[in-house]
Design brief:
10 helices; disordered C terminus
């Protein structure tokens, strides 16, 4: 009686939770859809509907007279009907029933992302334990010590920064998919290297990726646990001493990330994805709006969607202006280390030049830049009036002589090259500045002699930099 009572208390708590989450009666997750009202599972297709696997006949067992099927991978549990239309539906793997409480697209996106990371992490852990190392004294540590060593070295902050930047694009892709603005499927980032052309081959590759990712998540958890408990390298119980290699690993060709969803029919809970044009430059996002008539519209580059809320002409004007400045700036940043104007103090680190330059020169530079910025528009400085008439964004009638005698196609090609080179220059200049901040020195050599890593990031004000430089401005 005592034991049965304890069990009943747990069972009753679980029954209430299941009923509240699914809105169904016993067995909760897989009963027929209720028509009495909305709930978290109100849009689920009844489990009695036809379940068709794409790559092979369905092998799930159907419970006698109950209207639902048993999972192939977990044969003592029913199959979640929310998996219908997705790669791996014939496996029926969702023992906790998450797909009935949370959007399956979000779940599959997360599953594929974690699986891909764990496949790389598993290979990386084993390769490191076998002796493969990146050149440099800081990297000659064991796999277990690697995290703390990289935090101390300062590279972990850099990794988080750039991974977060990449994750931003993944977030945009998911949001556009969930809102139905693109026909993207979970996990698809437009990478098609070594991807089969036929539908059957694509499904099989997606299935392999899904299963290998699930296995890798389990494998990496086990590897990390065994490594910490035993304190030994892979395969953990071997007695061979660990060896080190100073040679850099060869960069391989990278496996195809196929995505995890075959074309599916519309379900009650999902927003039907409309077949829309994709961006040529960011293929996992829809083609941006309001770029018609602008140079480079065929590239479809506006991942954040600024052109939907801000005048595209004003945006293009700013983009061209920043691109032109950065093209000049990259040349100057590089030349700063080797060329010094008369009357200026030699300063190899271009970031320090603002502190060592004569105050008169800096004042003249600021005045000249301000004059050009204000005089170029004839007093029309807002996006409401700067494009009155037929003025084209970025056209200041400067260098127009180079376009004389050229065909419309040649003129377009030159403008497109300027746009692309300007975008590249903005990235290049940001990278140069980032490099000098990290190494606390000039652009070359990329890794100064005796460099011990980036260390913790610190922010210095301009006035503080002037005082530290001890230049002329410090005495003003």
């Amino acid at each position: 009686e005592l034991k049965n009572g304890r069990l009943a208390m747990i069972a009753f708590g679980g029954a209430i939770t299941q009923a509240a989450l699914t809105g169904n009666g016993f067995p909760w997750l897989f009963a027929q859809r209720s028509t009495s009202g909305a709930s978290l599972a109100s849009g689920i297709r009844p489990a009695g509907k036809q379940f068709t696997a794409r790559s092979s006949p369905a092998v799930a067992m159907r419970a006698e007279g109950s209207g639902y099927k048993m999972s192939k991978s977990v044969p003592f549990l029913p199959v979640s009907p929310a998996l219908e239309g997705y790669v791996g539906e014939e496996d029926g793997f969702d023992p906790m029933g998450f797909s009935l409480a949370i959007d399956i697209r979000w779940l599959r996106e997360a599953e594929l992302k974690h699986g891909r990371v764990c496949m790389l992490a598993t290979v990386g852990w084993i390769a490191t334990d076998l002796g493969l190392r990146v050149p440099g004294e800081a990297f000659q540590v064991s796999t277990i010590q690697a995290h703390d060593a990289m935090v101390k070295f300062g590279s972990m902050t850099q990794m988080l920064c750039w991974i977060g930047y990449a994750e931003l694009f993944g977030y945009l892709a998911i949001i556009k998919m969930m809102e139905g603005e693109t026909d993207r499927v979970p996990g698809d980032f437009g990478l098609r290297w070594l991807y089969p052309k036929d539908e059957q081959g694509q499904y099989e590759m997606q299935m392999k990726e899904l299963r290998n990712g699930r296995l890798a998540m389990l494998a990496f958890s086990g590897i990390a646990t065994a490594g910490v408990l035993t304190g030994k390298p892979w395969p953990f119980f071997a007695m061979r001493p660990e060896t080190r290699c100073s040679a850099a690993p060869a960069l391989g060709g990278g496996a195809t990330l196929c995505g995890g969803l075959q074309q599916q029919g519309a379900r009650g809970t999902s927003v039907a994805a409309r077949a829309m044009e994709r961006s040529a430059s960011v293929p996992f996002l829809p083609k941006p709006k309001n770029l018609e008539g602008l140079v480079g519209e065929e590239q479809g580059f506006d991942p954040i969607g600024f052109a939907e809320d801000v005048d595209p002409k004003w945006l293009r004007e700013a983009e061209l202006k920043h691109g032109r400045v950065c093209m000049v700036a990259t040349v100057g940043f590089f030349s700063q280390q080797y060329i010094t104007f008369p009357g200026f103090e030699p300063t190899p680190d271009a970031l320090q030049a603002v502190y060592t330059a004569p105050p008169g020169a800096m004042a003249a530079l600021l005045f000249l830049a301000g004059y050009i910025e204000s005089a170029s528009y004839g007093g029309k400085l807002t996006m409401l009036d700067m494009f009155e008439g037929d003025r084209v964004p970025g056209d200041f009638n400067f260098g127009a002589g180079f376009l004389k005698g050229k065909s419309d196609k040649e003129v377009y090609d030159m403008k497109l090259k300027e746009l692309n080179n300007g975008r590249l220059a903005m990235l290049a200049f940001a990278g140069m500045v980032h490099h000098n901040i990290v190494v606390k020195g000039p652009l070359f050599p990329l890794f100064p002699d005796g460099w011990t890593g980036p260390g913790p990031w610190t922010a210095t004000s301009m006035q503080g930099g002037i005082n530290e430089a001890g230049g002329m401005w410090g005495n003003v």
